[in-house]
DNA sequence: TCCATGGTCGAACGCTGTTCGTTGACGAAC
DNA sequence: GTTCGTCAACGAACAGCGTTCGACCATGGA
């Protein structure tokens, strides 16, 4: 009693329907990374990722809680690519190697560092990396409380540098566009009223040149030297951890 | 020849039409800050800001280039609230005061620090603040190139801390929710397999407690001590600025 | 008095993350 | 071998976003 021909408007396209591969969490993360590498973080929309899999955005939600969930998974894939160097015992060397390895992994995936702002990644691979960093800090004699504080301190720095680097690459395209922009910025700085901005005017050229690895290394060096001093302060049993703490008379806001 | 009565569907509501005040750039920025303080950065949409002025989003575009333009203006309003303390000559004290003043201004406006990620603010008030920081760094003996690098280094740190603080306040509401979350995180850390995460497991409790001003001060102290060492290295004429530069054998990415 | 200028503003475009309800494929039970 | 229940796939829709378009009209100068 039901051998009516199927009306055209409810005809199923069996070709696409049969060709569907069942989705999986890993496949979705794979596709997300493909999109990320091709178009950056902003291009990594649910629809775009689904398109990469030949389906619609709604299909992803059977495997992924929401976009944040997906982003976290993507992040941990990136951290999985950090090649953790063999510890040599020279903790300064070991830390710098870890820092470069982390920065490299982040920069290998466009502006992925952008999503790390204010986020403490807790994926397995991120924790593995963090554990190694903590190990280095403990080996250099830093007490555990300060290790907990030093972690975000250095991690935020590495992330910020990686993001900066990706911004130069993406907004200016090539090295030349970047140089042009900074030259214009330098000219602007130099044209400011010297009585209001005495330092910026004088430093106009210096502020807008130099960067890359040399700058990254500078920051690492500053952080390491500071942390080393903290470790020494505790080694000698002195409690002089906070040299500047007497300067805190009026820290409050009053604006 | 045109005294037809106005059809009701194109009738102008003179009440609202007459009551309109002509917009201005400053009024829009004012409204944006009102929205920011009430609902945070994510709530600061063009429509919502326009609503605050009793109009539609399209009206804003006669005065503002785009949303980025508006955000930049809001940012510089915030930087205008930084009360720059009188320099005392003790550069360590002066810098810590500047850092606290900046953090206070940022934290006074919800999660505004969020939009500073990867941005170098170039508004008049931001430049004024930067100029003072540069002045302190130069007074402590840092060569200009390193001053240019130290600026973003400390500015990113202050921004990150301010954003962290605003996240705690917004996602957890009160102090109690925050404590609960970190306690759960600590329990999770403690439950990790110790052979894979030896340091995190041991430090589980330490990693998830302590923060606030004490942590902020720690970071400032680390940065200042590191910068001080850099300044001294140049004072003595030594070129030993990069202690760890021999560790750069294989910095490249290979993933 | 007329006209040109330019701010106002409703509607629309294309995009976002997410939800709903229908559909159909597949494995288990009878 | 048939039936049935479960669940993934998926088109459509919702509410929101930044931005643009074009009609509207109050105002200022000729």
Automatic annotation (TrEMBL), chains A, B:
Point out the DNA-binding stretch(es). 45-64
Which keywords describe this protein according to UniProt?
Answer: DNA-binding, Repressor, Transcription, Transcription regulation
- Which superkingdom is the protein from? Bacteria
Q: Name one Pfam family in it.
A: TetR_N
Q: Output the InterPro entries linked to this UniProt entry.
A: Homeodomain-like_sf, HTH-type_TetR-like_transc_reg, HTH_TetR, Repressor_TetR_C, Tet_transcr_reg_TetR, Tet_transcr_reg_TetR-rel_C_sf
Give the HTH tetR-type domain ranges. 22-82
- Which named protein is this? TetR family transcriptional regulator ActII
Question: What does the record give as the organism's lineage?
Answer: Bacteria, Bacillati, Actinomycetota, Actinomycetes, Cryptosporangiales
């Amino acid at each position: 009693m039901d051998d009516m021909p199927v009306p055209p408007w409810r005809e199923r396209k069996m070709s696409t329907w049969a060709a569907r591969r069942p989705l999986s969490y890993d496949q979705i993360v794979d596709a997300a990374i493909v999109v990320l590498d091709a178009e950056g973080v902003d291009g990594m929309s649910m629809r775009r990722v689904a398109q990469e899999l030949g389906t619609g955005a709604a299909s992803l939600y059977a495997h992924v809680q929401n976009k944040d969930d997906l982003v976290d998974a993507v992040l941990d894939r990136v951290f999985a690519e950090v090649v953790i160097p063999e510890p040599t015992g020279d903790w300064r060397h070991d830390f710098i190697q870890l820092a470069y390895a982390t920065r490299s992994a982040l920069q290998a995936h466009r502006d992925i560092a952008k999503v790390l702002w204010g986020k403490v990644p807790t994926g397995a691979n991120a924790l593995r990396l963090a554990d190694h960093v903590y190990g280095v800090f403990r080996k250099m004699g830093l007490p555990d409380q300060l290790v907990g504080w030093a972690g975000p301190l250095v991690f935020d720095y590495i992330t910020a540098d990686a993001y900066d680097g990706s911004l130069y690459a993406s907004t200016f395209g090539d090295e030349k566009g970047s140089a042009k922009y900074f030259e214009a910025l330098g000219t602007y700085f130099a044209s400011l009223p010297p009585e209001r901005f005495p330092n910026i005017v004088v430093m106009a050229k210096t502020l807008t040149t130099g960067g890359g690895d040399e700058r990254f290394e500078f920051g690492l060096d500053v952080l390491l030297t500071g942390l080393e001093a903290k470790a020494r302060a505790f080694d000698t049993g002195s409690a002089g951890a906070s040299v500047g703490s007497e300067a805190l008379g009026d820290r409050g806001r009053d604006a």
